[in-house]
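Run log // design_07
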């Protein structure tokens, strides 16, 4: 099909509904009428002018087919020149940041990639700051994120498979793993789930994370997340699959264990004794968060006789005159803390100090002095609120469980706490994601993986990859 430049320019403009940021630049090269079409703000205009337009305009000889050979000898820039025959494909590539080159008499379109999308610099992620170790974090550009992982895994065995999802966003998704280590069944399952995504747009990696979970309504996240390349690289080396989504600084990893939420990159950059102690602190913080408010309500409502006499007197003096029953009081205090937490997240940073003063001093202290809530309830809730951030990956889940334990403690007392604990253990042991028990290596017991559990061994003793989830080539160190 012989190309009519004016006709195709009109068709492309119509496809973009005459958007004002669609740029068309016409010129003559080798006696032929040519035009380039691109989206303003997506490309590197300096390279476009110096390495594309200038060499083409300076062509003195008459251009004859095949034009691709002449373009390859005239233009010098790293990306290959792609050939496209479908107008729809051309429009998709232009919308993705490529440049369409139209030449009079050509039978195809020529696509050039000079993308330079706006992006922020690589910096330490605010959600995973460390005292020791790498401080680089992922950004919203998928190519930069792939390069950050390539920087740490310089092997041809590192496979990058590109896919797209979203009818309108056409978002790029990269699946990364090491050939010969990652399990083929998990790789196929991840690719199949991503290929089935059929929505208008994939704006963030969490759109993909929800579709990678095997349990649709699980209260626990079954997909790991991280904003640090060193953490993701270490997980890939263990045999996991990483999923990067363009436009998101959060990388997804599967399979996931609950134990990962209690681990931190700093654990591997410090002594094993310190790491073990810190992980125990995180575990205690999680238990305080989930159980302590419900336990307080159960003891005050049904089992005050179990408390020591001196403590009982102090508690009675602190709670006498409170107009609400213990369960309602605790739920009110938890609600206030949740509201303060949401306000602190969305409030401008320079107003954070004001919020702390208003929330902690004015609301808390005044409410206690006014006799609306008791000081023990505020203390228990404050300890629970602090403990919940010991495991930041499970904040939402622990918040739900905390409320559930309070309700059961208010209805059934300690029996409700016991029932809720047993039910929670049964529920978590039933989760099996991509052939991986969620509570491994403790349920079931996987003896080789206990060396990197809550009790962490030295790095020299970790010569094998985890047995808790499927992977190949178990030996990683001699």
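design_07 sequence
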């Amino acid at each position: 099909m012989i190309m009519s430049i004016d006709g195709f320019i009109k068709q492309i403009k119509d496809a973009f509904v005459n958007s004002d940021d669609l740029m068309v630049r016409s010129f003559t090269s080798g006696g032929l009428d040519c035009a380039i079409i691109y989206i303003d703000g997506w490309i590197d205009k300096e390279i476009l002018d110096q390495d594309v337009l200038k060499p083409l305009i300076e062509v003195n000889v008459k251009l004859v087919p095949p034009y691709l050979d002449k373009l390859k000898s005239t233009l010098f820039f790293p990306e290959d020149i792609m050939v496209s025959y479908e107008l729809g494909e051309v429009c998709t590539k232009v919308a993705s940041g490529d440049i369409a080159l139209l030449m009079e008499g050509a039978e195809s379109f020529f696509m050039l990639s000079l993308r330079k999308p706006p992006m922020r610099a690589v910096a330490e992620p605010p959600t995973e700051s460390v005292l020791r170790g790498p401080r680089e974090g992922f950004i919203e550009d998928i190519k930069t994120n792939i390069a950050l992982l390539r920087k740490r895994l310089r092997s041809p065995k590192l496979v990058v498979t590109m896919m797209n999802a979203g009818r309108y966003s056409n978002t790029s998704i990269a699946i990364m793993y090491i050939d010969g280590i990652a399990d083929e069944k998990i790789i196929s399952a991840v690719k199949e789930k991503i290929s089935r995504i059929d929505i208008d747009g994939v704006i963030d990696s969490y759109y993909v994370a929800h579709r990678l979970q095997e349990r649709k309504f699980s209260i626990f996240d079954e997909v790991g997340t991280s904003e640090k390349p060193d953490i993701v690289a270490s997980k890939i080396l263990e045999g996991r699959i990483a999923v990067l989504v363009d436009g998101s600084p959060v990388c997804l990893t599967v399979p996931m264990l609950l134990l990962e939420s209690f681990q931190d990159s700093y654990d591997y950059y410090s002594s094993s004794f310190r790491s073990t102690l810190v992980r125990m602190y995180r575990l205690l913080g999680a238990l305080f968060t989930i159980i302590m408010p419900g336990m307080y309500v159960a003891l005050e409502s049904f089992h005050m006789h179990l408390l020591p006499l001196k403590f009982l007197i102090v508690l009675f003096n602190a709670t006498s005159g409170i107009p609400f029953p213990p369960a309602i009081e605790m739920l009110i205090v938890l609600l206030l803390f949740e509201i303060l937490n949401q306000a602190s997240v969305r409030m401008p940073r320079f107003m954070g100090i004001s919020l702390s003063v208003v929330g902690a001093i004015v609301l808390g202290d005044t409410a206690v002095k006014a006799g609306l809530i008791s000081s023990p309830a505020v203390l228990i809730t404050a300890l629970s609120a602090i403990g919940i951030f010991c495991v930041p990956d499970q904040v939402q889940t622990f918040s739900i469980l905390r409320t559930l334990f309070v309700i059961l403690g208010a209805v059934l007392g300690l029996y409700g706490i016991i029932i809720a604990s047993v039910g929670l253990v049964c529920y978590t042991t039933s989760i099996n994601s991509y052939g991986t028990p969620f509570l491994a290596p403790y349920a079931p017991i996987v003896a080789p993986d206990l060396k990197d559990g809550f009790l962490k061994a030295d790095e020299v003793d970790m010569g094998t990859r985890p047995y808790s989830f499927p992977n190949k080539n178990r030996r990683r160190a001699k």
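The first strand starts at residue 22 and ends at 29.
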